[in-house]
Design goal:
This protein has about 450 residues and is an alpha/beta fold. About 45% of the residues lie in helices and about 15% in strands. The protein has 19 helices and 17 strands.
């Protein structure tokens, strides 16, 4: 029996007491809905249910019937009016009557698409409360499959007007891209999965799905020749000792002294006044050359602030935070990396480290493909020291001279005086420090920036 409040509608004659709609999937014998739903002069809810029941004999509407069997909302603290409204909207969601925008904004995603035995086996588990948790998988197509576009759901213009249409169009484009690469949309739908992003240069896609379906879909994809990465968390790396100790021990203070002789003291603070003074200095050639550093973090995060300790003449870095919290995930890092690479920085700092060793190789490949040619750095110390050397030698973009500086710094290693050694070897290699002319020096003195 299907219970619709105080009214009863028998489904037994339509589909039988133990009807099976596809291999391994059995319809629940009874489905209970809250009182007040499906009857009454204005509701007219029995029509969709009868249609669902009659069509169920062929298995065509299994997803909608499964939606009817999912757990009910919590009505415990609602008044009668709220219960009625909530019950009506819940029924519309379950039968597909609610608008696309309503289902999108409420996160409702009823089961859809053809079923497989493996997906059907976990249908009962998917009704548990924890099934609301989502997971992400990153998948690379088998040999011959190609992801042809760069797209991500986080890049959609979030303005309300037209958001649903933009989201739907992006989803359709990504689904077509994945189908061409060998991942059918029907397979994704069977596990409640949707594309979240595609990376053409990595030939990689991110899909989002219920957490309880992650292992099952991963196994199916691997059997079909896909490479699958779980979207495991990454954590920020903290520098082991203070910046002041490192500046002194590495000999970076020697490089700072050379910069002071030519360009005076670094800006004391940020803000409108400091920015205006820096602009005046730059017009007259009295400011240190600008070298763009991109950091996969917020401009106020510890990594970005630490860089300023090592390269105090540098401006604020270009910030591309994958997360504001203490951890990020692989897809977050790749999305930020792609955005940072489009800004064409000279140096790119990633202060995040993966928990899964398999992500290291993937990130190295991603950084080479998405980093825009920037020299890659994994610590504020290294990025700040390289940035300071690049500024004093006037190396503002990726290329041969930046590669020379990066190589010399790598060869110096972590030995005491490493930064000074790299600076002196750069001089021996023919790189010349930038020196302001007479007028620039006069402007520097006029603005009170002359150092020792």
């Amino acid at each position: 029996m299907l219970s619709l409040g105080s009214g009863l509608l028998s489904l037994g004659s339509a589909i039988g007491p133990s009807a099976r709609l596809s291999a391994g999937v059995e319809l629940p014998r009874t489905i209970s809905l809250p009182a007040g739903v499906g009857h009454g002069p204005q509701s007219g809810r029995s029509g969709p249910v009868v249609a669902l029941a009659l069509a169920a004999r062929s298995g065509a509407l299994l997803p909608a019937l499964e939606a009817l069997a999912l757990p009910l909302p919590d009505y415990g603290r609602m008044d009668a009016f709220s219960i009625k409204n909530k019950a009506d909207s819940d029924f519309k969601d379950r039968t597909g009557e609610s608008s696309f925008l309503t289902r999108l904004l409420t996160g409702w995603r009823p089961p859809s698409g053809p079923r497989t035995a493996q997906a059907s086996a976990s249908a009962e588990d998917a009704r548990l409360p924890e099934s609301r948790e989502t997971a992400r998988l990153l998948v690379a197509p088998p040999s011959g499959g190609t992801i042809s576009a760069d797209a991500h759901e986080n890049a959609i213009d979030s303005k309300p007007a037209g958001f649903a249409q933009r989201y739907a169009a992006l989803q359709e484009d990504m689904l077509k891209d994945l189908e061409a690469a060998g991942l059918p949309r029907d397979l994704l739908a069977a596990y409640g999965a949707v594309p979240a992003g595609t990376y053409h240069r990595l030939n990689l896609a991110t899909i989002r799905l219920p957490a309880l379906q992650k292992n099952a879909l991963s196994a199916v994809l691997r059997n079909r020749g896909f490479t699958v990465y779980e979207d495991a968390p990454w954590a920020r790396v903290q520098e082991p000792s203070s910046a002041a100790e490192f500046v002194a021990a590495s000999g970076l203070d020697h490089v700072h002294a050379a910069a002071r002789r030519g360009f005076g003291e670094p800006p004391a603070a940020e803000g409108a006044v400091a920015g205006a003074a820096e602009s005046v200095l730059r017009v007259f050639g009295a400011a240190m050359p600008r070298v763009d550093l991109a950091v996969l973090d917020s401009a106020r995060a510890s990594a970005a602030l630490a860089v300023r300790e090592f390269a105090p003449w540098a401006g604020a870095p270009l910030a591309f935070p994958p997360s504001e919290g203490a951890s990020a995930a692989l897809d977050d890092v790749l999305r930020s990396l792609a955005a940072a690479g489009r800004s064409k920085p000279a140096i790119l700092l990633n202060p995040w480290r993966p928990a899964d060793p398999a992500h290291e190789e993937l990130y190295s490949r991603a950084a080479a493909a998405l980093g825009g040619g920037a020299v890659l750095s994994s610590s504020p110390r290294h990025a700040g020291t390289l940035l300071m050397l690049a500024q004093i030698f006037g190396v503002a973009s990726p290329g041969r001279e930046m590669d020379i500086l990066a190589r010399l710094l790598a060869e110096a290693g972590d030995a005491p005086g490493a930064a000074r050694a790299a600076f002196e070897r750069a001089l021996d290699a023919g790189l010349a420090p930038v020196e302001p002319g007479g007028l620039a020096r006069w402007v520097t003195q006029l603005l009170g920036r002359t150092g020792a």
